[in-house]
Amino acid sequence: MPKLLRNLTGLIGFFLLWEAAVRSGLVPEVFLPPPSEVLVTTVELLSQELFLRDVIATLLAWAIALLISIGIAVPLGLVLGNVAWLRAATRAIVEFLRPIPSVALIPLVLLVVGGGPEAKIALAVYAAVWPILFNAIYALGEIDPVLLDTARACGTNRRQLLTSVALPHAAPFVFTGIRMSAAVALIVVVSVEYVAGAASGLGKFILEVSSSGMRMDQVLAGTVIAGLIGYLINEGLERTGKRLFRWNEATGRTT
């Protein structure tokens, strides 16, 4: 609760400064409506079926992309983290692909999979794979050798070493990667909806209202809702991580 109060205090302070800047004329209201007006517009939008469908479309694409990313990155990270020669052999291609921005791949993805929901899901998967993958590889590479030697001395075979030592050690780090990827996936989904002109989604809504006239209150309302969704996702995953990995002293640093 203290953390929530601190967050709310900072947020309320920001909104008060924003309101004061607009009301005092420092910022033209036509370009930046006050938060009181944006809040009213936000409530109105949440009561509209078409807007809620856009929100659901974004959340559905985000959830699918995150699940696919986990399904790809976790097994691959475990393999690369355990097999040194394979990790070395794939390092160059991984380091080549990782820095490429997902948005830069929009034309290629549109040509390959078309402009439907598959495009934003594919790009979100591409962006969300890396945090999970690298956290898994890092976690397995940072296991204390003394811990591994002790387990081997106790007669632990390779399979038991993986399931009883390596995986419990890596789990909090992998979960941190999932939490990071959840935010990345949401950003990419909304961005692709905006840039590529998706048929539905929050990004599509923001694009339409920003190009149809001076309805900055709706633009900001859509942006606020996207930010609120991201905050709730991160908060939920953070609380889940603390409960799941309370036993691990690394939880405070990794989740």
TrEMBL record:
How this chain sits in the membrane, per its record, is:
Multi-pass membrane protein
Primary location class: membrane
Which UniProt keyword terms apply here?
Cell membrane, Membrane, Transmembrane, Transmembrane helix, Transport
One Pfam assignment: BPD_transp_1
| Alphabetical list of SUPFAM superfamilies matching this protein | MetI-like (SSF161098)
Establish whether keyword Transport is in the entry. Answer: yes
Enumerate the spans annotated as ABC transmembrane type-1 domain: 55-237
Residue spans making up a coiled coil are none
Please state where this protein is localized.
Cell membrane
Q: Which residues cross the membrane?
A: 59-84, 96-115, 121-140, 184-207, 219-237
Q: Which InterPro entries match?
A: MetI-like (IPR000515), MetI-like_sf (IPR035906)
> From what superkingdom does this record's organism come?
Bacteria
* Family per record: Belongs to the binding-protein-dependent transport system permease family.
This chain's protein is named: ABC transporter permease
